[in-house]
Amino acid sequence: PGLAVYDPGFVNTASCRSSVTFIDGDKGVLEYRGYPIEQLAEQSNFLEVAYLLVHGSLPSKDEYDQWVHNITYHTFVHENVKGFMEGFRYDAHPMGMLMASVGALSTFYPESRNISDADNRAIQIIRMIAKMPTLGAWSFRHAQGKPYVYPDNALSYTENFLSMLFKMSEPKYEADPRLVKALDTLFILHADHEQNASANAVRSVGSTQVDPYSAVAAGVGALYGPLHGGANEAVLRMLKRIGSKSEIPAFIEGVKNGNERLMGFGHRVYKNYDPRAKIIKKACDDVFEVTGVNPLLEIAQELEKIALEDEYFVKRKLYPNVDFYSGLIYEAFQFPPEMFTVLFAIGRTPGWLAQWLELTQDKEQKIARPKQIYTGSRGLTYTPTDQRW
Ligand code: CMC
């Protein structure tokens, strides 16, 4: 008591103990519950990874089937949620809609406030993983002025999401399996990242013992920002603004002069390379095989090459992060940039919930309440307005 360590941005402060995700930033290692991200991205699928994160171990066949069944049958949302979403302005940012509608779910499931009950926690986790694609897809349809598409429970998790986004007519939307696999892989890559800003927001709000919908809504809010999940949207806008390879040197000079940041570069923990960026590059090739190459790819590759050889970036250990290439893939899917962070949020939901669940089980965890170093005035005497104005 009385002693405060000044650590803005928690650069050197561990706020919790966690067994969910391991990162070795110097070696470029990322593991969920001990399994390397490369193996999960290659061999698993998003719902199995979600089970792994939430439950701590890989499922048996029965556990997996039950988990997928439960999630599939909770994809629908209450009709009034639809009405609520329809009330947004025509040009509402889908992340704003997602944040609000996830938060609104807490009012549809008031029992979710009983966080001390294990069965209750389990059902809310299933509901949230199930409903995020529905809310995300509807926020997209809303911006396009198109009718919302209901979930199709005959489809897989990721196919159903694509169907709710892109279905234009009956009887059903059929996605190219290579696109489904690529999007599923992107969800896996985004599923958790230990104490990132949004997980920290979920934990901080969750530490007040509020319901998980409210805690996850806080996570969505944190993810919305351009320095976190919003970076993929910012990368796309940046590449479009650069416009051609010949403009890259002038752009890089501007970054070095401190005019702006090279979006999609740099990371608080990865100081060698971001293992997710490597996997995404491969997914890029798979997607472009179906959709044709995104013309911005050339600019991105050249930008990466120049930056990786430039002393400014080398000295500061700035490498491409997960967001540098993900936006190019999303654009190939014909998502507008505002949707990119929604895709990130859907992928990150199991991670947020695993972090939240761990928090609720942690007896050492207290309400998150950092100290401050006070720099303001003290002991002033209030002067009434008739003497000041
Ligand atoms: N472009 C140019 N310079 C940079 C960049 C960048 N992208 N990132 C860091 N720097 C410089 C920064 O100016 C500072 O230089 P100096 O020492 O001369 O003052 C130095 O590198 C250290 O930067 P920092 O801001 O102290 O690093 P941080 O660990 O606080 O920030 C970061 C990490 C991700 C916020 C930052 O690298 C950044 O803003 N990157 C661009 C945004 C981005 O791509 N974000 C996505 C992150 S990965 C996915 C996610 O978490 O959502």
From TrEMBL:
Record carries keyword Transferase: yes
Matching Gene3D superfamilies: 2.20.28.60, Citrate Synthase, domain 1, Cytochrome P450-Terp, domain 2
Stored Pfam families: Citrate_synt
Alphabetized PROSITE patterns for the sequence: CITRATE_SYNTHASE (PS00480)
Key word Transferase present: yes
Catalytic activity: oxaloacetate + acetyl-CoA + H2O = citrate + CoA + H(+)
Family label: Belongs to the citrate synthase family.
NCBIfam families: cit_synth_I, PRK05614.1
Protein name as annotated: Citrate synthase
Bilayer-crossing regions: none
The species this protein was found in: Nocardioides panacihumi
